[in-house]
Structure formats: C-alpha cells, structure tokens
Amino acid sequence: MANARGFVAVNEEECKGCDLCVTACP
Fold first, then answer.
1. d(Cα 6, Cα 4) in Å, to the nearest integer?
2. Alpha helical stretches, state H, 1-26
3. pTM score > 0.90 for this model?
4. How many helices (H) and strands (E) does the chain have?
C-alpha cells in the first residue's frame, strides 16, 4: 500500500495498514 519512496512513510494514514510506517509493509 505504501508508495515505493525508498524510506519510512511519515503519513499516518499510510501507516494504518501496518504497525510501523515502513516499506517492508506488504
């Protein structure tokens, strides 16, 4: 779900899908 930005997503909305805002999130 998180765009391939190459770093942790600071957007909380995108973090909702995962416990942590990281690109490792499926």
1. 6
2. 12-15
3. no
4. 1, 0
Both tokens of residue 24?
A: 């490792």
Neighbours of 14 (CB within 10 A): 16
Cβ pair 7, 13 in contact under 8 A: no
Q: What pLDDT was estimated at residue 10?
A: 56
Give the angle subtended at the CA of 26 by the CAs of 24 and 22, to the nearest 5°.
30
According to DSSP, residue 7 is labeled S
